[in-house]
Structures are given as C-alpha cells and as structure tokens.
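Long-time lurker, first post. I've been practising inverse folding by hand and with some scripts of my own, and I keep getting stuck on stretches where the structure tokens seem ambiguous. Below is the full token string for one chain I'm working on. Before anyone asks, I'm not after the true native sequence, just a reasonable design that respects the backbone. If someone could post their per-position residues I'd love to compare against what I wrote down in my notebook.
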C-alpha cells in the first residue's frame, strides 16, 4: 500500500489499527457530525441559561376549566398599568377572541397574555413578530412596543375546527393626540 501521507504507518496492519478501519472520508463526516452536536448543545445552553428561554414554569399554568371564572381572564381586555405601559388579557376560545379589539396609543409597550379554556389555538398579530401557540392550561405571554399607528389584525393560526377561519381581532394603535383627548 503506497500513500503520499508520510505520517501514515508503513504497514497496512498498523494503519488499520490506527484508523479502526474507517475510511478517511467517512471519518471526516463523523467528526463534522460530532462538532455539529457540540454546536447545537452550546446553542441550547446559551438559549436556556444566558437568554432565559425555558419551558414554562408553574407560575404560567392555569386550570382551563375555571380560568375565565375569576382573576384577569374573568374580565379580559386591555388595561394601562403605568403611563405608556399596558397589559392585555385575551381569551382564545372556540371560535372567537375575547376581546376582539385592543386599543392602545402609539409607542405603548403592551404585554399580552393569552390562554385558552378549551382547545389549542394560535395568536398571531399581522405585521409584528407576535406569533404564539395558545395551549389550554398554559399562559402565552409576549411584550411588544407598537411604534406605528394603524390596525394590526390578529388571527388564530392553529387549525381548531370549523370556525377556525372566523377567529380574528384587531390591535388598533392610535396617535398620541387622540389618546390625549380621550384621557
Ligand atoms: Cu382557534 Cu384556529
């Protein structure tokens, strides 16, 4: 067996021992696969521990059978919690959103909490990066600052039965002058 690589063992037996009989081409792919696993493990660790992206905890769990009977979801809607800061509690149910309208002045930071009392729904606000799955028993939460005046429809984007296409609502972002007049 002749080879250009001078650091290869001279005898074929020694070479087989050293490489465990694995073709160099295959060995390189094995190395690449292991590197990829290490890379993925690293990204999962960064997301979980450095960025705090974790599976939901007990504080974000609710009982879907009674969630609309008391607490914030008994009176769903949008509330101002501090100047310029709002929270909106939304129920996604078969087959409508409550409320169907969320109105905030432009520049508002809005934290939206969504839950479902029945089955799995979705909550996606058009022209924003708000896109959540809504699972019964869990609270989906997102914070977003609405910097543009306009109407941003929200829809259910998880197929949930024959009324799925009717599940929609709208975030109305008004200009500050209008807000000043109303408050
Ligand atoms: Cu709710 Cu689709």
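-- Answer (accepted) --
I ran through it position by position. Result:
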């Amino acid at each position: 067996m002749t080879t250009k690589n001078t650091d290869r063992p001279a005898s074929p037996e020694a070479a087989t021992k050293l490489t465990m009989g694995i073709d160099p081409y295959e060995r390189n792919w094995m190395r690449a696969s292991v590197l990829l696993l290490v890379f993925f493990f690293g990204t999962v660790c960064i997301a979980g521990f450095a960025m705090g992206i974790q599976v939901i905890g007990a504080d974000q769990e609710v009982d879907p059978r009674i969630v609309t009977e008391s607490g914030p979801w008994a009176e769903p809607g949008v509330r101002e919690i501090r100047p310029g800061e709002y929270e909106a509690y939304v129920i996604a149910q078969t087959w409508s959103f409550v409320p169907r309208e969320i109105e905030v002045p432009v520049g508002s930071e809005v934290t939206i909490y969504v839950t479902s009392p029945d089955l799995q729904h979705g909550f996606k606000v058009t022209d924003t990066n708000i896109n959540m799955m809504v699972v019964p028993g869990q609270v989906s939460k997102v914070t977003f600052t609405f910097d543009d005046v306009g109407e941003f429809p929200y829809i259910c984007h998880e197929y949930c039965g024959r009324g799925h296409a009717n599940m929609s609502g709208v975030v109305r972002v008004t200009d500050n002058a209008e807000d000043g007049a109303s408050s």
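A couple of notes from the structure itself: Residues 179-183 have pLDDT under 50 and may be disordered. The CA atoms of residues 56 and 137 lie 11 Å apart. Happy to go over any region you disagree with.
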